[in-house]
Amino acid sequence: MPGGHHTGHDFNGDPTVVLRFFIFVYDEIIFFFYRFVAVPLALGLLQIVRRVLPVKIQEMMIDRAMRNLQALPGSPLWIHASSGEIEYAKSVIRDLKIHFPQVPVLVTYFSPSAKRLIQNFPGIDLAMALPWDRAKDLEKFLDFYRPKACLFARTDVWPKLSNQLRLRKIPSLLFAATLAA
After folding, report:
1. Which is nearest to 129 in space by CA: 120, 121, 138, 36?
2. Most-buried pick from 29, 100, 161, 172 (CB within 10 A)?
3. Are strands 105-109 and 149-153 parallel, antiparallel or unpaired?
4. Per-residue pLDDT of the chain (181 residues; tens, 9 = 90+)
5. Angle, to 10 degrees, between the axis of helix 159-167 and the axis of helix 135-145?
6. Under a CB-based contact definition with an 8 Å cutoff, are residues 83 and 117 in contact?
7. Closest by alpha carbon to 102, among 69, 148, 143?
8. By three-state DSSP, how is residue 79 classified?
9. How far apart are CA 138 and CA 39, in angstroms?
10. Taking a C-beta distance cutoff of 8 angstroms, is the pair 145, 106 a contact?
11. Cβ contacts of residue 88 below 8 Å, gap of 6+?
C-alpha cells in the first residue's frame, strides 16, 4: 500500500464486511460459549439448588420439563410473549381467530405470571412455557408442533430459538416492538 501501512484488512468503507465479521464472532465464539458453557452450567446449578429456590422459579423449571407435549389439530400459528407482553398479544390472538379460525393458536410464555394472564383467554388453543433456549429442547418442541410461523411480542426473542426458526425456514415476526434509533 503506497504511502501507508497495510494491515491486511481492506474494508474499503464497506460496512457489510464489518457486519459479517461481528456476525461471525457472535455465531462462532459467543454462541459456543453460550451453548457449551453458560447454559449447561446455569441449568446444572438450577437442578442442584431447585429445592431451595423461590416457588416462582421452581414453577418455571417444572413448566419447562416438557414431558407432556399436547397435540393440536394442525400446525399452529405460534405467539411468544413474556408476562407483560401478553397484553400486546391478546389483540393479535383475537384477530388471528377472526381471520384464520381453523388454524390453532399456540402461545408460549417465559414467566409463570404470564401463565395466569392467559390461562383462560379465548382464542388460545394451547398455552405453555417456552422451552429453555437449548437446541435439544427447541428441536423437540419444533419437531412436535411444526408451527406455520412464530410471532414474538415486543422484546422476548431468544438467540437459539431465532436460529432454529431460521434453519427450519419458519417465518418469524416481531410485533409491538419499540426500536431505538
Report:
1. 138
2. 161
3. unpaired
4. 455 555 555 555 666 777 777 777 777 787 778 777 887 787 777 777 666 666 666 666 666 665 668 889 999 999 998 877 888 899 999 999 999 999 999 999 887 777 777 878 899 999 888 888 888 889 999 999 999 999 999 888 888 899 999 999 999 999 887 777 6
5. 50
6. yes
7. 148
8. strand
9. 14
10. yes
11. 81, 153, 154, 175, 176
- Distance between CA atoms of 81 and 44, rounded to whole angstroms? 26
The three three-digit cell numbers of residue 164, written as one number: 432454529
Report the C-alpha gap between 75 and 96 in whole angstroms: 14
Residue 80, classified by CB atoms within 10 Å of its CB into exposed (0-12), middle (13-18) or buried (19+), is buried
Strand partners, 77: 105, 149
**Chain centroid, CA 119 distance in Å:** 20
> Which set of grid coordinates corresponds to residue 117?
394472564
| Cβ proximity of 128 and 114 under 8 Å | no
